[in-house]
Amino acid sequence: MKIYKLVLIEIWHRKSQLITALLAITLGIGVIVGIRSVAVVSEKAVAVNLDNLGANILVLPQGTSIDNYYSADIDAPTFPEDYVEKIRTSTLQGVDNISPKLTRRIKINNQSVVLTGILPSNEIISKPVWQTSGLSGQALKATCDTSAANKSHGYEDVRLQRKPIETLQQNECIVGSNIATTLKLRQGENVNILGSDFKVFNVLGETGTIDDDRIFAHLHAVQKLTGIENQVSVIEIMGCCNAISDGLLGKLRNILPDTKITTINQIVSTQIKTNQLMNKISIIFLIIILFVGGISIGNSIWANVNERKKELGTYRMIGFTKGRIYEMLLLKASILGIIGGILGYIIGTLSGVILGPQLAGLNIEPIPIFLLWSVLISLLISLLGSLIPAYLAGKIEPYKIMQEA
Amino acid sequence: MLIETKGLSKFYKHKDGIVEAIKDINLGFNQGDFVTITGPSGSGKTTLLLLLAGLLRPTAGSIKFQKHELHSASDNVLAGIRSKHIGFVMQNFSLIPYLSVLNNVLIPLSLNQNGERTKSDYAIHLLETVGLKDRMNHLPKELSAGQQQRVAIARALVNKPNLILADEPTGNLDPALSIEILEVLKRINIENQITIAMVTHSPTASKYGNIRIHIDKGSIVN
Ligand SMILES: Nc1ncnc2c1ncn2[C@@H]1O[C@H](COP(=O)(O)OP(=O)(O)OP(=O)(O)O)[C@@H](O)[C@H]1O
Ligand SMILES: [Mg+2]
User: Fold this and answer.
1) Do residue A185 and residue A142 come from a single domain?
2) What residues are paired with B80 via a beta bridge?
3) Comparing C-alpha atoms, which of A52, A73, A53 is closest to residue A63?
4) Mean pLDDT, chain A, as a whole number?
5) Which CATH superfamily is domain B3-96+162-220 in?
6) Which tens digit of pLDDT belongs to each residue from B30-82?
7) Residue B180 C-alpha, separation from nearest chain A C-alpha, in angstroms
8) How many angstroms separate the most distant Cα atoms in chain B?
9) Interface pTM (ipTM) of the complex?
10) Cα separation, A168 vs A204, whole angstroms
11) Whole domain around residue A129: which residue ranges?
12) In chain A, what residues touch B119 (CB-CB under 8 Å)?
């Protein structure tokens, strides 16, 4: 008869009490796991999107909606391509790269495609793409230092080490991975875009972003094909943070008064704020379950001790020390804590997986390491909550119980 | 001498005053004695047993069990002595309700280092001697009162004790069952030379003792 066996049998014998003992801690852990699972995915989504961007400043036409910064320029109104020259000749400090784009949604063989015109040598292809597609070119040079402040604005070395696409002829195109698959395109083959033949210069690797459904072609070719000559829908600018804080945006606005100029940060910050709020909520919840869960498990252990007074007296009578009584009760609390942690993890993960897509539009995946955290936190709370009841149980004098008989 | 008391007294402090439950008791039992303790209700019989078990601390006097000074030993030493050398049979059987008969018998051995197999073989053997081997997987509530008390006796024997303390072991049993239990105790006493100290109200039961103690108002009267 090992102590743990004794404890397990006792728990099983009073299994209906498990529900009241574990309700608070299970729900508490469940809510935290749910919130954290959503937060992790949402943070990752922001990070992936940020990582895929080649720029940190966007020049968009007046009135463009920027709900989704990554596709803000698709079918947006346009403005003259001359603006690129205006920026270039303005001798503004801290502008490292300017890449104008014109993006339109078109159909190829009834397949919806995003056609984006780019200027080769100005275009920085996003990191995952150039890494997997072997597009060659000279690395960009940074004009600003890579201080923490610069980095926090998305101005990182990695981004600056990206290589621009050097050459892209008027009759060449670069194809996103989804498009390549659905249209069965390979490097060197021809594809007909809006009546003109283009040679596939390169097929991009999968990025998990809208780039997978894009075809990139020369800006001027796209302008001709779509009949939007000398116009662009966005200018992406790589600017350094020092310059941004020194009022680069304001200076750009002076040069280009009829545009909307914004930083990626401004757009992303809303999403980051939501994530921060979620983190705050989970911390508040953590504190609440620390109290409620701990007290409720402690309370149920105390009720259990009172119910078992006679029995605990018997254990003492036949030679159990106070220490063994503590051991029995704390072992029980630990088992309850572990069960609560596991159940909480399952409930939180399930609700994240089921409700995540509906409520947040995010695909939540189970995060196994949270199981460890759930169990550890639940175990700790349950032990803390049971310390006082166990201590009081040790104080019960066995002779008093035996005389009552 | 297995157990010996000198000037043993126990006074309970109560808000209405002090209760002198045991007053200046001197006694000694040898290994193999069968001691019966009788006396009116409230005379201090249970208190005396609890003192002998090290479950109560005397107000004055000394208790020596083998070489141990119980009156001054620490709680843990006392618990160790109980678990190694003393068995208990109580009026209310004091079995653990959710443990099977076999597991109830096994609890005192949970500190014992022997293999689980050896322990349970011995527990089953003891259940056989009290005639309950076929009930070892039952819960206490599934047994009759006399059967429950026999489980308690098997549990009291499992640690191969020197002393069994019994507080009115037949108090909840009818006369026929009482005789049955008393016979079991007598057999243990004779066959294993285990000292038995048994509190009882019944004159029949008290005849089983080779040493008969009568207590009144906390003192031995003979
Ligand atoms: N915890 C206590 N606090 C105060 N007084 C107590 C306590 N326990 C017992 N007493 C008193 O001590 C005296 C002896 O009690 P004890 O239980 O030893 O009697 P007993 O001989 O076993 O009686 P019974 O035959 O009814 O079981 C009684 O007067 C009782 O009221
Ligand atoms: Mg009594």
Assistant:
1) yes
2) none
3) A73
4) 81
5) P-loop containing nucleotide triphosphate hydrolases (3.40.50.300)
6) 999 999 999 999 999 999 999 999 999 999 999 999 999 999 999 999 999 99
7) 22
8) 53
9) 0.94
10) 14
11) 63-257
12) 1
